[in-house]
Specification:
Layout lengths: L18 E10 L2 E11 L6 E8 L5 E9 L2 E4 L1 E4 H13 L3 E7 L6 E9 L4 E11 L8 E5 L32 E10 L4 E6 L15 E5 L10 E7 L6 E5 L15 E6 L14 E7 L17 H15 L5 E7 L3 E3 L5 E2 L2 H12 L11 H9 L8 E7 L6 H10 L4 E8 L5 H11 L3 E4 L5 H12 L4 E9 L4 E5 L13 E9 L7 E10 L2 E10 L9 H14 L8 H14 L6 E7 L11 E4 L43 H12 L4 H5 L1 H10 L10 H7 L3 H6 L8 H16 L4 H17 L1
Parallel strand pairs: 1-11, 3-30, 17-18, 17-21, 21-22, 22-23
Antiparallel strand pairs: 1-2, 2-9, 3-8, 4-5, 4-9, 6-29, 7-8, 7-29, 10-14, 11-13, 12-14, 15-16, 16-26, 18-19, 18-20, 24-27, 25-26, 27-28
Helix pairs in contact: 2-3, 2-7, 2-12, 5-6, 7-16, 8-9, 10-15, 15-16
Pfam family, one: VWA_3
Protein name: von Willebrand factor A domain-containing protein 5A
Length: about 750
């Protein structure tokens, strides 16, 4: 299979199909616990050293690694990275069995596992366990992903050869992968489960209780590693604030991080929508134009090319910007280009020039070198009273993510970054890391997700006034105090869930005792707050889930990679990582088995276990997405002797004609599809209005002369008439995509009211 040109060819040594991966997934409310076991058997006639490189969501707190060798279980120890690596090398050189699990030095979403000195016929089962907070989607779904795809990543000049991504891991056809995957999941929520969706075939979903507070499901047999396994879980209620108090580890010191009780606080601040949204700001759109953006969004049939989805998204964003702001568009690959030398004021002329350039964009700039365009953007002087809002769209295939995150962090006081991971295999470390470092938000677009809707949601957030004076206060019984473990929360967005962690120090109270935590903030001059009362009786959890998540939250705020973490933070990282047993870029899990019958003599045969990647697949050339001449467009029905123009909300007269069009059984994409919606949006002017011309008539499905003849008032302004019709067309034909055109429609309605 071909690989991306910057990666180069790799050698492939066949490995017999003797491996399997089994996963047990347990989801309770919005936290997932995962146990993944890799079963490996050496069916060769020589001792081998096997290497596995695999993806992991960067929010995962990996806390256990163990080996079962020929029926004997050996627990790994978490040690300082270089110490663990030296012990592994020493054990291998002396002929002992050894196993090493490391987080990549340059990206916390890639792991490498070394299986050393495995004798012929030996069987080993390697198990790792981790816990993870599940993100909340706009529609209320919890998103749980088991990563399977790890695409090649572009190396910038700073990247070290020490990255495990530099291993020439064989990339093979999916049917030739030497391992299989099985997965069983249990889901629990006290609020009840509404439904479960998955992008992969499942067995029948079972609900043991009548109230559907739990569910059990498993992957259907024959799963292929052609995509990440993604669950969308809908609870009946997800916006209930809560506090979970977890008992500490009995064997640890009572006042230590693992010994004291920990609390996980979740809030859903009820931030009102600002009316009207702010109209100032400098909006910079940084678009990936590397060769990999020419790939489809997913391997599903008729999946849109990444670059085409990105172009449509850019047009939507440009049309939705407010008059009076500033903007610019950058494209990057091995080099970068910008539409304008510096950000320009948003006018009809500059918007039209930008849209025309978007239409010509191609995925033709080579590799994914994102650091240089970021440095160029940050080096520009700020525009007074127009804070910078950066939107980054990329498939995230960069090796050294920590250096990119550090660059974004260094400019965090002058901007917010909203990041979007496009397609399977996008780096969660990069996408989440740059958003977290700058106080923005991150989104991932896979499968049937639309870049457009998630990008417009981020733009709405960027247009909202900032929330100020954020504070969290505790009301606890005398003798008990709370020490925050999470970084200070300074940025809040409407519809966002906040999760914070605290350590409870002091004398725990009787079982009936309660505490209260209050979340306060100021929005547009108004003081708002949210409170929740909770039981102080700590719950026992053998996995210490809350403690591990609290440790992970701390590590994410301090760990900038093995090379770049300041010395003052490295000490704290090592202490927390080793005390809590949660891996970091400075620690590794090591297992040495010295109880084998005798050390292995002679050289080892290296085996790099193949991995799947989407870029290695070949894709059929997509058919043209242009408008076919014979297609009948959905049209407006305007009476020859028109009645008085309906009010903005009274569009039922138009809706009846649309329903008739639906009955003609036109394919969905002909009525609501990208062609006509994007065409209509492309015609909108910067001030929100439309001109009455042939382009609009084509979208409306009428002759221009008929539209002009149907103007309801003598001497009426044709531009106002055209804008009213365009808005009504959106409501009648694009309701399913309303979240994408809501901002530009709001701008159009405001223009109609003014005229």
């Amino acid at each position: 299979n071909p690989v991306s040109p910057w990666w180069g060819p790799v050698a492939y040594s066949p490995v017999r199909r003797s491996q399997s991966i089994s996963v047990t997934l347990s989801i309770r409310e919005f936290v997932a616990g995962v146990s993944a076991t890799l079963n490996y058997e050496n069916e060769e006639k020589v001792p081998v050293e096997a290497f596995f490189v695999f993806p992991m969501d960067e929010d995962s707190a990996v806390y256990t690694f163990e080996a079962m060798v020929d029926g004997k279980k050996i627990m790994a120890e978490l040690q300082e990275r270089m110490t663990a690596s030296a012990k592994y090398d020493t054990a291998i050189s002396h002929g002992y069995q050894a196993f090493l699990l490391e987080e990549d030095m340059f990206s916390r979403d890639v792991f490498c596992c070394n299986v050393g000195n495995l004798q012929p016929g030996s069987k080993v089962s390697l198990t790792l366990r981790y816990v993870q907070e599940l993100p909340l989607e706009a529609d209320g779904a919890l998103r749980c992903v088991l990563p399977a795809i790890l695409n090649p990543r572009y190396q910038n000049s700073r990247s070290s050869q020490d990255s495990c991504l530099n291993m020439k891991t064989p990339v093979v056809p999916l049917d030739d992968l030497p391992y299989t995957l099985s997965m069983a999941a249990s889901i629990h929520s006290q609020h009840g489960i509404e439904r479960i969706q998955c992008n992969c075939p499942l067995s029948a979903i079972e609900y043991p209780e009548a109230d559907k507070t739990s569910a059990q499901v498993s992957l259907a047999d024959g799963h292929k590693f052609d995509r990440d396994v993604e669950f969308l879980i809908y609870y009946r209620e997800v916006h209930t604030p809560s506090v979970a108090v977890e008992m500490g580890k009995p064997s640890s010191k009572p006042d230590s991080l693992m010994g004291a009780p920990s609390a996980m606080v979740s809030f859903y601040p009820n931030i009102p929508e600002a009316q009207p949204p702010i109209s100032c700001g400098e909006f910079v759109f940084l678009m990936d134009r590397s060769g990999s953006m020419q790939c489809p969004m997913s391997k599903q049939d008729k999946s849109q090319l990444r670059i085409e989805a990105a172009k449509e998204t850019l047009i939507l964003l440009l049309k939705s910007l407010p008059i009076g702001c500033y903007f610019n568009v950058y494209g990057f690959g091995s080099s970068f280009q910008s539409f304008f030398k510096e950000s320009v004021e948003y006018t009809q002329e500059t918007m039209e020039e930008a849209v025309n350039k978007v239409k010509l964009m191609q995925a033709d700039l080579g590799g994914t070198e994102i650091l240089q365009p970021l440095q160029a953007i940050y080096s520009r002087p700020s525009i007074p009273d127009h804070p910078l809002q950066l939107f980054v769209f990329t498939d995230g295939e960069v090796v050294d993510t920590f250096s990119v995150i550090s660059e974004v962090r260094s400019s965090r006081l002058k901007h917010r970054c909203f990041s979007f991971g496009i397609g399977e295999g996008a780096s969660t470390s990069l996408i989440k890391g740059i958003a977290r470092a700058s106080g923005g938000t991150s989104e991932f677009i896979t499968g049937k997700d639309r870049v457009q809707s998630k990008a417009l949601r981020a733009l709405k957030r960027a247009l909202q006034p900032v929330v100020e004076d954020v504070a969290l206060s505790w009301a606890l019984p005398s003798g008990l105090s709370a020490k925050m473990l999470s970084p200070e929360q300074t940025v809040i967005f409407r519809g966002q869930r906040l999760i914070m962690y605290a350590q409870l120090n002091g004398v725990m109270q009787p079982a009936a005792a309660t505490g209260e935590v209050c979340f306060r903030y100021t929005f547009q001059g108004k003081s708002l707050s949210s409170k929740v009362t909770f039981s102080l009786e700590p719950k026992f959890d053998a996995n210490l889930t809350v403690h591990r998540l609290a440790a992970k939250s701390f590590l994410q705020s301090k760990d900038l990679g093995y090379r770049d973490t300041p010395a003052k933070d490295k000490k704290d990282i090592l202490k927390v990582s080793m005390e809590c047993g949660v891996i970091s870029s400075h620690t590794s899990f090591i297992v040495v088995n010295k109880e084998a019958n005798k050390p292995i003599q002679g050289p080892l045969t290296r085996r790099d276990v193949p991995r799947p990647m989407l870029l290695g697949a070949t894709f059929a050339k997509p058919k043209s997405r242009g408008v076919a001449p014979q297609r009948r467009l959905p049209s407006l029905h305007i009476a020859a002797h028109p009645p008085p123009v309906p009010t903005y909300r009274g569009s039922s007269w138009l809706g009846r004609r649309t329903c008739a069009a639906k009955k003609d059984k036109l394919p969905y994409h002909l009525i609501f599809g990208d062609n006509y919606l994007v065409q209509l949006i492309s015609l909108q002017k910067a001030n929100g209005s439309w001109d009455l011309d042939e382009g609009l008539a084509i979208v409306l499905g009428m002759n221009l002369s008929d539209i002009q003849a149907a103007v309801p008032m003598k001497n009426a302004d044709a531009q106002s008439w055209a804008t009213v019709l365009a808005v009504l067309w959106l409501h009648a034909n694009g309701q399913d995509l309303k979240c994408e055109w809501e901002l530009l429609e709001r701008k159009a309605v405001a223009w109609v009211h003014q005229h």
